[in-house]
Amino acid sequence: MSASGMKTFWILCLSAGMLGARVKAQTTSEDSTKTSWSVDIDEAVVTGERSAVKAQDAMRVVRKLDLAEVAYGNSQTLRDVLRLQNGVRLSQDLALGTGLSLNGLGGLNVQILMDGVPLVGRLGGNIDLGQIRLDNIERIEIVEGPLAVEYGTHSLAGTIQLISKRGGTPETTLHSSLQYESVGDYTQAAGLRWKGKRTNTSLHLSHHAFDGWSVDDPSFDWVNDFVADSGRVSTWNPKRQGQLNLQTVWTGNAWTWTPQLIAMGERIVNRGAPRGPYGDRALDDMYQTLRILPSLRAKTFEDGVLRWDLLASWQHFSRLKEGTTLDLTTLESTPQGPEQQDTTRVVAAMTRGTRYYTLSDTHSVRAGWDIHHETYTSGRVDRGRQDIMNAAAFALMTQTWLNAEFQFGLRQAWNSAFDAPLLPSGNVLIKWGQNRIRGAYARGFRAPTLKELHFRFVDVNHQLFGNNELVAETSNYTECSWSWYRQKSELRSRTFVNSVKDRISLVDQLDGTYRYENISAFYAQGFAIDGTFRHEKWMIQGGFLQTGRKQQLSEGDDLSKFLYTPELTGSVTWHMSEVFSLNANCKHNGSQPRYVSDEENRTVLQNSQPYTMMDIQAQWNWNNQSQLQVGVNNLMDVTNVDIVGGGGAHSSGNSWIAWGRSFVVSASHQIQFKRR
Predict the structure, then answer these.
(1) How far apart are alpha carbons 299 and 321 in whole angstroms?
(2) Residue 199 CA from chain centroid, whole number
(3) pLDDT per position as a tens digit, 590-627
(4) Which of 152, 215, 297, 656 could pair with 258 as two cysteines, CB 3.0-4.6 Å apart?
(5) Residue 265 pLDDT greater than 60, yes or no
(6) In whole angstroms, how far apart are CA 1 and each of 186, 387, 486?
(7) Which helix (H) or strand (E) element contains residue 222?
(8) Residues 557, 601: contact at Cβ < 8 Å?
(9) For 11-48, what is each residue's pLDDT tens digit?
């Protein structure tokens, strides 16, 4: 399809959807400054649901993280929040940023949504969690297991949705905040919220600066003493980030429109150590990332019941890498070779429409479409430009019988490069007093990305290649859970099994090259139990998760033993008064075993050492207008963990986890301008 034809196609899809909007709309808005002790676990969730429902009545178990709670007081990015969640394991690349796995699967198998829009631009298979700032995010919802029927590809492990704060109260509100962390980390943010007769608007801006941080390493002392720039070399590279979020909810007589613009920018500088026989030059890298995400959402209601939910977005992601050689005597900089220069661009357009039908008091249906087109441009892909398109029609039917709800879903997808199967799902929810029993089955599908198919990169140290013979990943996911709710407390247990066929992985070819290959089969299974207890001024949370993984590298090569990893979380919050609160939040990450190939092509077992992360913070609130927080991040001073076992070249090393213990202080204030 030509570029002009594609543009026409998107316009027609959006226009057709908008013409269906004919009924009365309603919107609600809450003041995001409510105190943390008023947070109710029964607040509505929306991810994967037909409409906003209470958490205890959702068809799937939804983990809702309300960022107004004091437990998340020191969190600035999505990385900060997820690192203390059960089932989430973080990986750190000092150039590409932070990635994650969820219940044994990671990277491209975790769907990340921003107000319903899937984020594109994955590096090393991951969205850099450190780039996604939370200054204007109200809550995060996590659904484990595929939501392929509702959201399509990239959700074999689960879905993480970030939901922005809405507009203001009847009074115009100006808010600002400052945060400092003792590792040389600074954040400034400001926003404006106002409400008109038919509009509800919010504007938020933030700037973040990080000076870089180095672990105690004598080699750095030599480097920094050798040159005039005493901070030339850092373990964690210095960076600058900026973010904008502009959103308006416009309420008409028959519909609501929500145009939104999100922009994120980042600049990272990796400064190298002196090189050459005289130490008079250094190799530096600069990485500059930009994400622009405009979107438009429309909703219609009949008698307070949602009928149409329409979403269209366009997304631009670019990452520029510039490699330079710096003369340390003259400070003149010259470009390195072409293999050290690259500009990667991803442009994605999508539209999703859902129609809701209420057939009776016990029977409802929702059906719709989902279309996604993506273009990948880089000097490191075949022919410099590749594109792919996904389209689908889906339907979900919900039937209520006595105290049980049954839901069946189907998604028929089409992919421009691969045959897409028919994807079914089934859910059951049984309500028995204060108990909820759930069962879920879902089939998942993920086509290889353009990078996995067409990537090619060769330099002195690396040779990485895509594979145009890859086949799509498919999965089968089964989950059973039990939940108990009483007032503001709850207890949950969950067991799951996830089998993935033809999982795509970057494989060492043992000749200095890496190539994307299909792994015949991959399995993950686990058991989790967690709970929340609230009583008067106390809130106690805790959880345990045991996840097992095994893989079959090829037909007939079955590593039949599951390798298990335990995780344990705990959180205690004490609201001493309406003004002052204390919180401690910790997570123990158990040893994570894995099979790898050594230099002699033998399969050996590696283990990462266990470690524990802990944060503490205190919070003061005055009149819901001013807030002060002080705390300590990474109290246990974890920086990296050892990886041991096996023998051979790949048998040992370490993995970076975080910079060391740090002290955090933040202050925020808001001013309300009352109307005359």
Answers:
(1) 41
(2) 30
(3) 998 877 666 666 667 788 889 999 999 999 998 878 99
(4) 297
(5) yes
(6) 47, 11, 56
(7) helix 218-226
(8) no
(9) 334 333 333 333 333 333 333 333 333 334 345 556 65
